[in-house]
């Protein structure tokens, strides 16, 4: 009997990506293309969003209930947040250094740049800025967990899941049926994830086709220097910074990249970290990080450990200042770093988060907000790179935390039921 030929998912996604680029280029400037292709991308993104909350709730409850130790959990939380802040600071400094060394914004004729619409980001930023630190802190504690789940308020969902997991652990034998229910939920949701992933190439085709059909070459040429520098800086960050951290804890960043190649291609194509969250958690558990660590670190990292985004925000802020001929002093750049450290935390669920953070930050050092309109046109292309770095940063964080706790590779690498491999053909 002949073995059935299967095309790995990574190649399927690449085919969808290339086909989308070709179709978008052929129908460039034709608004009809969005009518037909956008629904494909929207359906795929919606399917991923549909499963994110159940997976996070079930895996986090199972992980915390398995730990059952408030002191140990608090210790893990403290170490995790410390690591996130240190790496975010390094990402900001790398972005600032690249912008100051290569000066991508100098010598640009702003009359040749096409402006994008940033009104929606301005409105979002105003609502974010109206919230003080205490408002954000209060918002972590949900008044209605069902409402928080419906609105995908991840910090509130994480807070509830951790407390519920501790509650399940504290009641001993009576909690076992509840734990078994959420274990079964996690197993079922990972199966659903694999099923949904078979639609990924079609979703990528639709999303990329619409994106390419909207781009004007006039905007890409003068902004090419920024795009090249952003990607080069992100590659440097991944290889040198994340690679150095990986070597420090006894692993290799290239091993993680190889492990996550399907997810990285998907994240790049869709510009969405959410699309890979379920498989990222599953694969990092199989890589050797215990389930309770993975289920805590990854969702938390999606709010507090956006290395690609913070690096880009620092670089883009200096780029805009250079476009307007504004020479920021050392103290102003230090202020920029401190403000970015604060504004980039905890608002990952806000649409266009990088733009929102930049809008909330630029005014503090006297950089015109209008400058963002000039890079809005190519933001999708830059967002694709940011998303990949964000995913890799959170994958690396699970390994660091597992090594720091002395538990990497010492426990069962996959506690859920076997599922079909992600590389199935459609």
Automatic annotation (TrEMBL):
InterPro entries: Na-dicarboxylate_symporter, Na-dicarboxylate_symporter_CS, Na:dicarbo_symporter_sf. The keyword Iron-sulfur does not apply. This is Cation:dicarboxylate symporter family transporter. Pfam families: SDF. Keywords: Cell membrane, Membrane, Symport, Transmembrane, Transmembrane helix, Transport. Its main location: membrane. It is found in: Cell membrane.
């Amino acid at each position: 009997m002949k073995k059935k030929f299967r095309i790995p998912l990574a190649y399927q996604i690449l085919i969808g990506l290339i086909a989308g680029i070709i179709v978008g280029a052929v129908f460039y400037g034709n608004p009809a293309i969005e009518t037909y292709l956008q629904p494909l991308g929207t359906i795929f993104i919606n399917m991923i969003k549909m499963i994110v909350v159940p997976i996070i709730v079930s895996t986090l409850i199972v992980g915390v209930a398995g730990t059952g130790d408030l002191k140990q959990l608090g210790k893990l939380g403290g170490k995790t947040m410390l690591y996130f802040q240190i790496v975010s600071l390094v990402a900001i400094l790398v972005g600032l250094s690249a912008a100051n060394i290569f000066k991508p914004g100098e010598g640009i004729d702003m009359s040749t740049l096409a402006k994008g619409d940033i009104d929606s980001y301005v409105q979002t930023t105003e609502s974010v800025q109206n919230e003080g630190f205490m408002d954000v802190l209060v918002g972590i504690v949900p008044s209605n967990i069902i409402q928080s789940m419906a609105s995908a308020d991840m910090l509130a969902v994480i807070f509830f899941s951790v407390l519920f997991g501790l509650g399940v652990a504290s009641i001993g034998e009576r909690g076992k049926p509840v734990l078994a229910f959420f274990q079964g939920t996690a197993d079922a949701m990972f199966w659903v994830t694999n099923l949904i992933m078979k639609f990924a190439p079609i979703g990528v085709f639709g999303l990329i086709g619409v994106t390419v059909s909207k781009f004007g070459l006039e905007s890409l040429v003068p902004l090419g220097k920024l795009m090249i520098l952003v990607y080069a800086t992100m590659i440097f960050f991944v290889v040198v910074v994340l690679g150095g951290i990986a070597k420090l804890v006894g692993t290799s960043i290239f091993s993680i990249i190889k492990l996550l190649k399907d997810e990285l291609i998907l994240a790049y194509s869709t510009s969405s970290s959410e699309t890979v969250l379920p498989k990222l958690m599953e694969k990092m558990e199989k890589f050797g990080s215990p389930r309770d660590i993975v289920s805590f670190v990854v969702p938390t990292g999606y709010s507090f450990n956006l290395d690609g985004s913070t690096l880009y925000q620092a670089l883009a802020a200096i780029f805009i200042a250079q476009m307007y001929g504004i020479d920021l002093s050392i103290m102003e750049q230090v202020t920029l770093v401190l403000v970015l450290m604060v504004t980039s935390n905890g608002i990952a669920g806000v649409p266009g988060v990088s733009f929102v953070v930049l809008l909330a930050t630029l005014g503090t050092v006297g950089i015109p907000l209008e400058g963002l309109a000039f890079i809005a046109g190519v933001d999708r292309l830059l967002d694709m790179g940011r998303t990949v770095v964000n995913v890799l940063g959170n994958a690396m964080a699970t390994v660091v935390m597992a090594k720091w706790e002395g538990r990497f590779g010492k426990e069962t690498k996959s506690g859920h039921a076997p599922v079909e491999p992600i590389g199935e053909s459609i």
